[in-house]
From TrEMBL:
The protein's name in its UniProt record: DUF1648 domain-containing protein
Domain of life, per lineage: Bacteria
UniProt keyword list: Membrane, Transmembrane, Transmembrane helix
Domain DUF1648: 12-53
Residues that span the membrane, as ranges: 7-23, 43-63, 84-104, 110-128, 161-179, 185-205
């Protein structure tokens, strides 16, 4: 077993032991959702304390699985560090969610979720954005549009552009933490749409530009 997988396995076992330790002591209903004000607005059965474990397993296993089934799987070796970083972020998120759930189960008013999730979301945008230019051409990981998948040059240009967009979005998210609560949902939706639409549009324009240049050369 690779050293990385041993570390992930140890992390999973530690989370499982923590869940098993706290489970008998938890109230029958535990917080599972926070609203735009960062306050608890939904409770579920205490068995949901194990949900972060599922997120952890997903973060640990999904990317290696896609690397095995992707037709361009040989390219995954060329951005291995990005895969490991993504796995680490997803697993770290699950640890934070578990910690929030356990603390809020005993002290419901102790946590304002916005002051935890906003920095984490900002970190996610910034780290992934910084890693995007390193992602090599493949069919399952990265910015996949009809135009990036049709042209490797468009793929690399789009990922360089997308990386900048995502880093900027990360800092915007961090600033949005201080917005009035009534604007938060619309704000986050706007940031997410921007981070998705701008790369999509750019990939189309880049492909059209590449096609036009190719046509001019033939003339």
């Amino acid at each position: 077993m690779k050293k990385k997988n041993i570390i992930f396995l140890i992390g999973f076992i530690m989370m499982l032991l923590i869940c098993l330790w706290f489970y008998p002591k938890l109230p029958q209903q535990i917080p599972t959702h926070w609203n735009a004000q960062g306050k608890i607005d939904s409770y579920s059965a205490k068995s949901f304390v194990f949900m972060p474990l599922a997120i952890y397993l997903l973060g640990w296993g999904l990317i290696p699985f896609t690397a095995k089934i992707d037709p361009k799987k040989e390219n995954y070796k060329r951005f291995y560090s990005v895969q490991t970083l993504t796995q680490t972020i997803l697993c770290f998120f699950s640890v934070v969610i578990l910690a929030m759930t356990l603390i809020a189960s005993y002290h419901p008013k102790a946590i304002n979720a916005n002051f935890i999730m906003f920095p984490l979301l900002a970190l996610l945008f910034i780290v992934i954005g910084n890693s995007m230019p390193k992602i090599k051409f493949n069919y399952t990981f990265g910015v996949k549009t009809p135009w990036t998948l049709a042209n490797e040059t468009v793929w690399y240009k789009t990922h360089r552009f997308s990386g900048k967009v995502w880093v900027i979005c990360g800092f915007v998210v961090l600033a949005g933490m201080f917005l009035p609560s009534k604007w938060i949902l619309s704000f986050l939706l706007g940031v997410i749409l921007t981070s998705a639409l701008l790369p999509f549009i750019y990939s189309y324009l880049s492909f059209q530009n590449a096609t036009q240049k190719k046509g001019n050369k033939k003339l």
